[in-house]
Amino acid sequence: MMTLHRSLRDERVWSFALVAPALLTVGLLFIYPLGFSAVSAFSAEEEGGWTFANFIKAFDLYSNDILFTVVIVSLSTVLIGVFAIAIGGYLTLGENLYAVAILKWLYRWPLFIPFIVAAQLMRTFLAKNGLMNNLIVGSGLLEPLQTQSFLDWRGIVITFVWKQTPFVALLVAGAMASLDRSMIESARNLGAGRLRILIEIILPQVRPTIVVALILSFVVMMSVLSVPIMINAQTPTMLTVDMAFRINAYGDYGVANALGFISYLMTGVVAWIYLRHGVRQGGSP
Amino acid sequence: MAGESLTVDGVKVSYGDVQVLAGVSIDVAPGEFIALLGSSGCGKTTLLRAISGFVPVDAGRVLVADRDVTNAPPDKRGMAMVFQSYALWPHMTAAQNIGYGLRLRKVARGELNRRVEETMSLLGLDGLGDRLVTQLSGGQRQRVALGRALAVEPRTLLLDEPLSNLDARIRQTVRHEIKALQQQLQITAIHVTHDREEAMVMADRIVILDRGEIAQIGTPEDVYNRPRSSFVAAFMGADNVIPLTAKRDNGGLHVSASDDHADAVLSIADGDEGANLIGSGDGELTAHFRSEAARLIDINERPEGSLVLFGTVTQTSYPGGIYRYTIDVGDRHFLVDDLKKLGVGDAVGICLPAKSLHLYSANPTTSS
Asked: FRET partner for B46 with CA separation of 20 to 30 A, picked from A103, A185, A238, B210?
């Protein structure tokens, strides 16, 4: 009895020892900073005690940027969804084997490029005298004077979509490829065209994967600093830029943390959708 | 809806360098039920997919009612297919699955609902229309898959091993149901299966495929009683083989005695009365027989018109009702059932009446 007791206790000690590094990492690197920044967002810096002052200031100065961030990230998410479904759909239903092979090889490239490099690429591509306009002028479609720079909100959206579409397409195409092929053939057999098969047969079945991939993309885009800073050097801009500015220019951690908390609420909403989705799928998000 | 004739004319299909169909030709009459039978990899599913338009053919033609559909897309051939996995759409209800083809044909809502209900009651699926297909049993799913194909009133129904996922008891019932339905609707049906009994029970004619070629086409009685080759005989259950040496004359086939068997004079006839002989009958032959046609007799007995093999009982078992014996004849083993009780080591004769034998000349080119 004693031995059994001891071995159970030993086992408990060992299991705690095994999960301890993971717990410490989560605690020190995630829970503590998150809690600290939440507390700091609600603290009055000089007089001490709890306050909404940081939030009031954040909304006063940056409500346009909050809206801008929501619109940019939401628009990008929608476009990423559309392109990823188009790529996945073509990879699954495309009949030209060469085109499918080329697309399969090509579409993943942006996955391996960091955001900051992607932003730099887009700066040279989208500028008024950048590669895109040079190509358009060279092909005679526009006069040099008619060209315009895309280095504004459109540039951010283009960069986000270009960078994140492969990630979503990778997951979505994988889910589509794992569907029973005969489900597609049975629809073809009854006379359904490819677009109809994509929308009515394939999409409803891979919807959970699409939702999850888009939510992950949404959260990633919310946290990117390099792209808005490098592409959109004007206002309104994204919240990450404002946070960096509050800290670097004023050492104002209170407002920066309030902005961080607002970002957290936005991602919290999509995380809630993600979890709700997971529960509906039988607890396996 | 009445069935249409179907002609497969010299169809060849390859996957890369591997030729799967080496020039297959079949003529199917309107309303006929054809079973494509063969072992795995013989090309039967590929042939069905070539007929349905899912596999492009390298050579040859597919004609539906004399109309060339070789290059037509799958939905322009008047055919509907039932898939082995059923391929039902899990996000749709049973009724939505069945009505999908009608919706594509822009059938008005009222008419669509009426036809879906009609199809469901035809298949005994009343009251299950609102259920997701994932909530249905295997047998019910199979019916929904059949209903989805039948709802569009195809002239030809293609069935790709649709019963292989059902348990044995349900399979027996569904076989008869499909056959009855096909006769009632008078549609042409092509059914792929590797189950011999299923093909025999359901089909008007059976096409036996072997390595991408047709080994034999015929009615169930034909392929069972008069297999044209050693392969077909073995495939149709006559898989016990013994070599013989014989000479043929007007009196019949004179089989010479050997260590394994006695001499015998066997009648050769078409149909049930004599042995099924393919080839000249002179020289070396391969004899095929089914275990159930064999009878155990005293080793010294010589019944007229029968071949007697000399055997020794090496194993006995009692599966119920009869005894099952493993009998060694030379270095071959045969399983024979008999009512008599015998012991291991007993010498027995295996009596094979002429009509139970399928004989193939070792050199079939000398066929008379």
From this structure: A103
In the β-sheet with B205-210, what is the strand arrangement from edge to edge? B79-82, B156-160, B188-193, B33-37, B205-210, B213-218
Domain with CATH 3.40.50.300 in chain B: 6-230
Instruction: Tell me the chain A residues in contact with residue B104 when contact means C-beta distances shorter than 8 Å.
Output: 190-192, 196
The whole-number pLDDT of residue B366 equals 41
Residue A111 lies in a domain: yes
Query: Helix, strand or coil for residue A95?
Result: coil
> In the numeric block, which tokens belong to residue B318?
């009692």
Residue ranges of chain A with pLDDT lower than 70?
A: 1-4, 278-285
Task: Give the torsion sign (CA, B233, B237, B243, B248).
Answer: negative
What is the value of ipTM here, to two decimals? 0.79
Cβ contact (<8 Å) for A189 and B88? no
A191/B100 Cβ within 8 A: no
Q: What is the pLDDT of residue B365?
A: 46
pLDDT (tens digit, 9 = 90+) per residue, A203-223? Answer: 999 998 999 999 999 999 999
Distances (CA, A) of A48 to A55, A57, B67: 16, 17, 89
Q: Is there a contact between B344 and B362 (Cβ–Cβ < 8 Å)?
A: no
Looking at the 3D structure of chain A, how many domains does it have?
1
- Answer yes or no: do A187 and B85 touch at CB < 8 A: no
Give the number of beta-carbon pairs within 8 Å between A and B. Answer: 54
Which one of 3.40.50.300, 3.30.930.10, 2.40.50.140, 3.40.50.1980 gives the CATH number of domain B231-366?
2.40.50.140
- CATH number of the domain where residue A73 is located: 1.10.3720.10
Residue A31 to chain B, least CA–CA distance (Å): 40
Question: Is A159 among the domain residues?
Answer: yes
Residues of A in contact with B105 (CB under 8 A): 191
pLDDT on residue B233: 93
Residue B103 is predicted with a pLDDT of 94
Spatial contact of B37 and B206, defined as CB atoms under 8 Å apart: yes
Q: Which pLDDT does position B334 carry in this prediction?
A: 93
Q: Residue B75: which of A183, A191, A204 has the nearest Cβ?
A: A191
Q: What is the pLDDT of residue B274?
A: 83
Domain encompassing residue A118:
54-280
Fold entry, domain B6-230:
Rossmann fold (3.40.50)
pTM above 0.90, yes or no: no
Does a structural domain hold residue A193?
yes
Chain B positions in Cβ-Cβ contact with residue A282 (cut-off 8 Å)? none
Neighbour count for residue B180 (Cβ, 10 Å): 10
CB contact under 8 A, A186 and B83: yes
Shortest distance, CA A196 to any CA of chain B (angstroms): 10
In a domain, A173, yes or no: yes
Tokens 């822009």, located at residue: B106
